Amino acid sequence: MEELVREEVALPSAPGEDEHPALALANSAVALPGGHTADLLGTPAQAEQWLTRRDLAPEGTGLAEVCTTQLRSLREQVRSLLASRVAGQPALPAAIAAINDAMTRVPTAPLLLWDQKTGPYRATPHPTTAIVEHALAVIAADAADLLTSPDAARLTACASPPCNRFLLKHGRRQWCSTRCGDRARAARAYARRTATE
User: Rounded distance, CA 96 to CA 84, Å?
Assistant: First the structure.
């Protein structure tokens, strides 16, 4: 049974995360050794911090749980698309629909509203919702760009179980971090030692 770890996990960015917020979003739920899982979007405060660090929301946005749930939902759809691409399998239609919906939901301008006393005006109906929808649109557009760009050929999953992070390969590197690479090499060395005993 997986145990959820809610505090921030001190992992370096996987290769490609700094250039692709969609990759960073997909990697915001991390499988750790010992059956633990860290969710970097576990609370509204953590989700806001995650968005702020990536310049997708200003500090003090005041994210609500409903906004955090939307972000986690998009994460699952992006993970599904990346996993399909890595496995060479067709993507789930629901994942494609979620990405397209996030990209097209954001109004390109403040909406026209009408106040009974003052008349017409333009405004964003709910500023926090607009911030979140904009962040979701940016991430969804990046996911679409990543999956259709030459970088898609370099997309892979970390080769060190139980890690579930994605990365863009550089050379022969198969791991998202030095920690995962060290763990994989140690497991291979242990397997060789026990096979010769």
Answer: 11
How far apart (Å, rounded) are the C-alpha atoms in residues 128 and 121? 19
- pTM attached to this predicted model: 0.81
Confidence of residue 1 (pLDDT cuts 50, 70, 90): very low
Q: What pLDDT digit, counting tens, does each position of 53-75 carry?
A: 999 999 998 999 999 999 999 99
Which amino acid, residue 25?
L
Q: What is the CA radius of gyration of the chain?
A: 20
Q: Are 132 and 52 in contact (CB under 8 A)?
A: no
The tokens of 156 are what? 């892979």
